[in-house]
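Researcher: Please generate the 3D structure of the following complex. Treat every line as part of one assembly.
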Amino acid sequence: MMDETDTPSAAPAHRPPPRTDDRPPVKPPAPPESRAAPLPPTLRRNAPLVPTDSAASRALAAVIAILTFLAALCAGAAEIVASSAVQWQDTVAQEATIQVRPSPGRDIDADVARAEGLAKATPGIAAVRVFSKAEAERLLEPWLGSGLDLSDLPVPRLVTLKLAETAPDLKPLRSSLSEALPGVASLDDHALWLRRLSTAANTFVGVGVGIVLLVLVATGLAVVFATRGAMAGNREVVEVLHFVGANDDFIARAFQRRFFGLGLRGGIIGSGAAIAAFALAGLVSRNWRSGPAGEEIEALFGTFHIGWRGYAAVLLIGVIASVVTGIVSRLTVRRFLA
Amino acid sequence: MVGQDLGGIVADRVNTQSLLSGAEEPVVQFESVGMRYGLGPEVLSDVSFQIAPRSFQFLTGPSGAGKTTLLRLILLSVRPTRGLVSVFGEEVSDISSEALTGLRRRMGVVFQDFRLLDHLTTYENVALPLRVQGRSETSYRAEVVELLRWVGLGERMHVLPPLLSGGEKQRAAIARALIARPELLLADEPTGNVDPSLGRRLLRLFIELNRLGTSVLIATHDFALMDLVDARRFVLGDGRLTVEA
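Model: Done. Output below.
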């Protein structure tokens, strides 16, 4: 025999049955605030639908952290080169040089004085400095050694011109030099050197940006594999979600949330490590700067300081890595489900 | 049998109508449906039946007769090899994924193996159909708690499914199927893991739901359970289906 609570009421089908404790709660319940239904305070209510914290998740976060770190190093290095190149270019572009070559039958000192006069008469030139014969010979010391008598050598003489802030047009000076001192004086405005420097710097920055893009693509591919693995591992979850009425977009969003979280964790660790590495390199290079080697390094690379733009780029890479992770996982899930 | 009191369940209280009343569309309609997996033999052949709105029926037959396959066809998790399947008036052969989701939200299903998500609490599992509709947790909390208490899981709502007994899992699965008040309830051996008393109680829950307008199809080979209700029986045997009124 059935017990008392199993006895159904005899209410007609068209009328809602009277409520008893045993009746299924198929009527809309009262709003939550009016109900004295204390829930256990520790009851978990909105856990992520896709299981988290598996070994695979940690491995993916580590991969993203490493890739972000490498990409951020590349971006920082490119930023150092780019800003150093701008500094070099600014310095070099502020100067021009007149070279006066000795010529048989001519008085080189008079030629130099003539060139100096022409330069001083040209508008837009802030200062003119003549390298004396002794200074010109000293410039050869690194190649020829010291203590030599160079008086017999036809050592060219240099006149350096400091240009005004707004780069002047040097064409009139060039033509007046070739008119006044034909075949003897020439003007070098460093354009060739600047072009080469700019090409080298742009190439380096381009390579850096390319590597950053490649690393982001690698991150995306790693996420594709990880997402497909997670989909396969959670096939049951996906199936149940479908049966209870979740659409593909809902499921894709659930995966996206999980992977964005992983990407964010990896991105923060990777870019944080890169920022720490740059800060450390900056400190170390500052300590080295006192020595001659440090000066050379600094002359070549500038300071190991990536500036706010560099730090912003590093952080941006961390954010992009997590966004890429989220979007790629969502697209992968959508394709997988389709 | 109609009108007879069977162990406390009044048999004529379930809606046993098999004919469609007026212009009402059948909830489920199968026409000459055949189904085979891969190149294997047909699991179902020439199956035709209708489930009317607000009707109650059992699906029975020996193990391996294709009960679960038939439920999977109604659930649209597999497509028929031949024949027509319509659910809620919609022919499902080239249904879009959005429409499929819409149809599934009108169904509740109790799986033979429960299919509870092991990483979610009982509460979260039961709330899942409401959660996937995008509702906020506070909007359905009271409903879920009330249903959990009613199926006797009020003290177990924070427990993860691996720690539930077979009967508790069964009740959690049933609660999950009922929480969104489906128009069609499919249950695969819903009383297979519970004692007879609880089995009757759960059956009464289904009957109650049916009286409030839900069409119910229960797959079972528990004749004692079927004898408690005077309802239509779809009997599967050798891949064919016969309807016993």
